[in-house]
Amino acid sequence: MHSSCSLPTNRKSKIQNRTWFLLGALFLLAPASTWAEDVLVYENFYLVKMYGQVCGRMHFKTTKVSEAGKPVRYVSIDEQKTMMKRGNDTITTEENGTNVEDETGKPVSFENVSKQSKEATVRKGLVKDGVIEMTMITAGDTKDMKIPYKGTFLFPYGEQLLRKQKGFAVGTAYTYGLFLAEIGDVKEAQVKVLKNEKLALGSDKEPQDYHVLQLTGIAPGLTITFWCADDGYWRKFTLDVNDTEMVVCAKEDWEKPIDPPRIDAMKKNSVDPGFLMPVPARLDSVDYRLKMDKGDINAVAWDDERQKIVAKPDAQTIVLQVKRVPMTEAESPSLPLAQADLDKLKPYMASSPLIQWDDPDIVKTAKEIAGTEKNGYKVAKKLERFVFENIKTKSYDTGFASAKEVQKNREGDCTEHGVWLAALLRAAGIPSKVAMGLTFAEGNYNYHMWTEAWLGRWVALDATLCCPSVDPAHIEMADSPLEGASMGDKYLAVAQVFGRMKMEVDKALLAGGKAVTTADLKAPGKLDNNKYIDPTLGIAFEVPAGLTLMPRGSKLPNGQDMPLPVAGLLVDRSKGIQAVVVNLPSTFGSDLPTMLKQPALKPQEIKGGQAAIIPQGPARIVMALAPGMLVRVEIMSRNPADAQAVADSVLKTLVLGDPAATPAK
C-alpha cells in the first residue's frame, strides 16, 4: 500500500499506483475479444493524466455482435497502459479486457488481464442466476470463487443504457450495482447529475453540451466525476486521487509515444511534518494531530491494537495516539494455535489469489525457517528476518506481485515483502493480514505496507524494515486478509487522503519516558566546544577545531533551504570543507556490509552501533548503523587528507541512539 515505503536502499513505498488498476476495474478491462465484429456501436481514444502530465492511454470500443443461431451480444473491449514514476524507478502497468452483455445490458461474461509485475493476472468468469463465477489465475495458481449479489449489477453497455434511461436533468439521482473485477466484488454506485456544461473535448471543433455526473459509493470518501454526451458514453473522467483524469482525444494523439513521467507520485503524496522525527526505534508513543483540508478523515479506519483516536477537535481533525506494543517471547502462544482460535480467523488463514500459502515451495520454506521452534513469536520474527534478507532486489518497478511470484523472483518493495511474509506466516500456522498506512522515512511520512500476525492478539511485523518491533512512526489506515482478488477497495479508502493531510505532533515519548514536542523536534543540533550534539535525534561526535555549525533549518551556502533529512551542516570555509550530517531512519536490523552490498567492508564497533569510512574520490562518507537508524556524514573537501581527518574524528567519537548523546572518548 512506504506509497510510499522505506527500503534498505533508502527508497519509499509505492502503494499509490493501485489507483490505475481501480480505474481500469471501473470499466472492467479485459483481453481482445474472439467474437466476430458486426456493428460498431461506439469507439473512442483517451489520454490518461496525473498531476497534469500525460502518463498513459486507453482505448474503448463497444460492438453489437450477431451470429446465426445465437443471441445478439454487445461486446465491450478495452485496453489501457499507464506509467508512473516512483523514486528512481518507473512502473508500467497494462490492462486489457472484454465484457459481454445481452441486448438489455444484462451481464453474460467477462475476462480481464492485468500486468502489474513480470507475470500477468487473469480474471475471467460467467454470470449465472445473479451469481458471478470467477476464476483468477496468478503466477500459475488458479483460484475459483463465487460472488453472490442480490440485485442488479451492470457492465459498461448496461451502464450506458441506464444513463440514457434515467436522463440528464440536473438533480437526477439513482443507484445501481457496479461489478469491479479488480477487487472481485460488487459496489453500490450512487450517481447524481450535477450540471450541464459546454466544453470542447477531443476532436470537438466547438464547445459541446456535456452532462456532469458524480459517482460515489465505490469507497468511503472517494468521488468520481464523468462528463457524458447524450449517447450516455463518457468523454472525460476525473478521480479525486493523484489529480487523475482521462480525457477523450484524437487517434493520432493517442498513438504518439508517451514521455517518461517526471513527477514522482510517491513524493507528491507523502506527508511532510515540517521537522525531523526522532529515530523511530527510540519512540514509545506519538500523539499525531492529523487534519484534512478536503475529503472525509473519518472514512479511514484509524483504531487498532496500536493506535486510537484520543480527540476530535473538529470535523476534519483527529488526534491519533500511536504506541509501540511489542510482544515478548514469554507471552506468545505455542504452535500449533488452538483450533477454536483458528476457526474464528478463517479469512486470515485462507489461501487466496494473492496469498497462496499452500504453494508447495512456500510451505517448504516456512517449515525450514520455523524448524523445531514452537514459540509463535519466535517463528514470526524468524520469518520476518528471512523475508527481509531474501528479497534481494529492492525496487519499485513491480506493481503488485502475489506471494507465489515473490517466492519465485525474490524482488519488489513493501507490498511484496508484506504479502510474502503473510503467506509464510499462514504456512507456519499463524493467521496473518496486511496493513496499509504511513511510516517515516527520509524526512517525510510515506505510504507503506507491512504485515500483522495473530498471536493471541495482532502483532505488527515489517519485513521491509525488519525493526525490533514496529514503532509509533507506523500509522495504520487500513488492513485486509487479502481474501479476494485485490486490496483495491481498502486502497481507495486510503487513497482519498493522498495529498490532503496535514500533520503535527502534539507529543512524543522516547524510550525511558522523555517527552518531546513539535518545538523540540524543530530545535537544531548544537556545537559545544568541538562536540556536535543533537539530543533529539540521538547523534553526537567530536569535530576538529575550525568547523562551525549551520544548524537544521539554515540556508545552504547556495542560498537554498537545507533539505530534510539533513540534521546539520558543519563547514570550514577556509579549507573548503563541508560535513553534511544526514539522519535516515529507513534501514533497520541489518549490518553495513549487507546493506551497502560491500562484503569486503569491515565496520568498526562504536557506541550504539557500527560504522565505517567509505572513500568517494576526494570525499569521505562515514556510514553508521544502529537498530532503527542510519547516520551518514558526508565530508566533502578539495583536499582528501582534510576529509579523512574529519572522518577519522567522527568515527572515533560517534555515538548513536542515546538520548543523552554524549560523544565517546
Describe this structure in words.
There is one protein chain. The strands form six sheets. This protein has a 15-stranded mixed β-sheet with strand order 8-7-6-5-4-3-2-1-15-14-13-12-11-10-9. Strands 30-31-32-36-35-34-33 form a seven-stranded antiparallel β-sheet, with helices on one face. A five-stranded antiparallel β-sheet has the order 17-18-16-25-26. The chain is about 15% helix and about 40% strand. With about 675 residues, it is an alpha+beta fold. The chain contains 13 helices and 37 strands. Mean pLDDT is about 85; it is low at about 1-35. It is globular.
Structural class: alpha+beta
The rough form would be described as globular
Number of helix segments?
13
Quick one: biggest sheet? 15 strands, mixed
Distance between the termini: 45 Å
Biggest sheet strand order reads 8-7-6-5-4-3-2-1-15-14-13-12-11-10-9
Q: How many strands appear in the DSSP assignment?
A: 37
Tell me the Rg in angstroms: 27 Å
Strand percentage lies at: 35-45%
Instruction: Please bin the fraction of helical residues.
Output: 10-25%
The parts where pLDDT drops under 50 for at least 5 residues are 1-35
Mean pLDDT: 83
In short:
With 665 residues, this protein is an alpha+beta fold. The protein is built from 13 helices and 37 strands. The two termini are 45 Å apart.
